[in-house]
Design goal:
It is a single chain. About 45% of the residues lie in helices and about 15% in strands. It is α/β, with parallel strands linked by helices. An eight-stranded parallel beta sheet has the order 1-2-6-7-8-9-10-13. A three-stranded antiparallel beta sheet has the order 3-4-5. The chain has a two-stranded antiparallel ribbon with strand order 11-12. It has one domain: Divalent-metal-dependent TIM barrel enzymes (TIM Barrel), CATH 3.20.20.150. The chain starts with a helix and ends with a helix. It is globular. Helix 7 runs parallel beside helix 8 (about 185-190). It is built from 13 helices and 13 strands. The longest helix is centred in the C-terminal third of the chain and has 21 residues, at about 280-299. It holds the Pfam family AP_endonuc_2. One of its GO terms (molecular function) is isomerase activity. Keywords: Isomerase, Signal. This is Sugar phosphate isomerase/epimerase.
């Protein structure tokens, strides 16, 4: 189903699209923590997690989406989950979501999959997370049949995680929007997953780079479902990642209404292509974000 037909099937555009973003920005509750996806500084976290957390806290980051969970050892960056939580508490920092390695279990038996899900739940609860997130599938898995299988598995996993008191979300890249003889993975996920069980993490870089949608249009299709956001910029020439403010994405114009989206947490992120170093990039991005973008999220 193409974008135009799918949007028609999902209903008419919301009235919010008739107004520029600042018209409703003042209605937003300014209670979001300033977040960072820790994959951005993954090498630094592996080498020296404590001092890396201290450094980004000094920059102004308060909340994180974590990466690097070892399910068998119940560790993050080689540190036992209980000990890692104590570090966070000592620094007065929080982790609200984590990216977990579900793609390995896409074709596993349900017993094996549920064992991994339960391990993720234990790890997430140790860090007082609110969401467990499925971040991607491997290149060789990106077929329509596998998107259909994944959608079924997302519902099953979401039900298990929701019963534990946590939320569950799926994070998009660009491959979900690729056409497969008139179908694409993202439309399947929207249609075949239960919005009550499976929330969505919108990576706005990938939406702007790879889809026929805008972030606002996605929210109009599935209001209140995009509870997590990734905010990162796109190089004007190569279309690779870049620091906020260095690229082509104008967040003052493309950000959806956070209330309509259902936003709970957002994270700045840069997956690579650093101008100098990861630490300098997250510093440059937060400075730009606070000056030019934050008002559109917080109101």
């Amino acid at each position: 189903m193409n974008r135009r037909h799918f949007m028609g099937a999902m209903g008419a555009l919301g009235a919010s699209s008739l107004f520029p973003y600042p018209a409703f920005a003042t209605n937003l509750a300014p209670n979001y923590k300033l977040g960072l996806q820790l994959y951005t500084i993954n090498n630094e976290m592996i080498k020296d997690p404590v001092n890396s957390l201290k450094a980004v806290k000094e920059m102004g980051y308060e909340d994180f989406e974590i990466f690097g969970f070892d399910a068998e050892k119940n560790t993050f960056y080689g540190i036992n989950a209980d000990e890692f939580n104590a570090i966070l508490n000592d620094l007065d920092l929080t982790v609200s979501s984590g990216h977990f390695g579900f793609s390995t279990y896409l074709n596993a038996s349900e017993d094996v999959l549920m064992r991994f899900v339960d391990q993720c739940i234990v790890g997430a609860q140790k860090l007082n997370m609110k969401y467990i997130t499925w971040p991607w599938i491997a290149p060789e898995q990106r077929t329509i049949d596998n998107f259909k299988l994944m959608s079924k598995r997302l519902n099953v996993i979401g039900e298990r995680i929701n019963k534990s008191g946590l939320g569950f979300a799926y994070h998009n890249h660009g491959f979900e929007f690729e056409d497969h003889n008139g179908e694409n993975g993202f439309d399947l996920i929207l249609k075949e997953t239960d919005p009550d069980l499976v929330k969505l993490e919108m990576d706005m870089y990938w939406v702007m780079r790879s889809s026929n949608y805008t972030p606002k249009e996605l929210v109009e299709l599935q209001p209140k479902r995009f509870v997590l956001w990734h905010i990162k910029d796109m190089d004007k020439i190569t279309k690779d990642y870049t620091e906020l403010g260095n690229g082509s994405i104008d967040y003052t114009k493309i950000l959806p209404d956070p209330t309509e989206a259902g936003l709970e947490y957002y994270y700045l992120e840069q997956g690579g292509n650093f101008a100098h170093s990861p630490m300098q990039s997250v510093k440059d991005s937060i400075i730009y974000f606070k000056k030019h973008v934050q008002q559109y999220v917080y109101g």
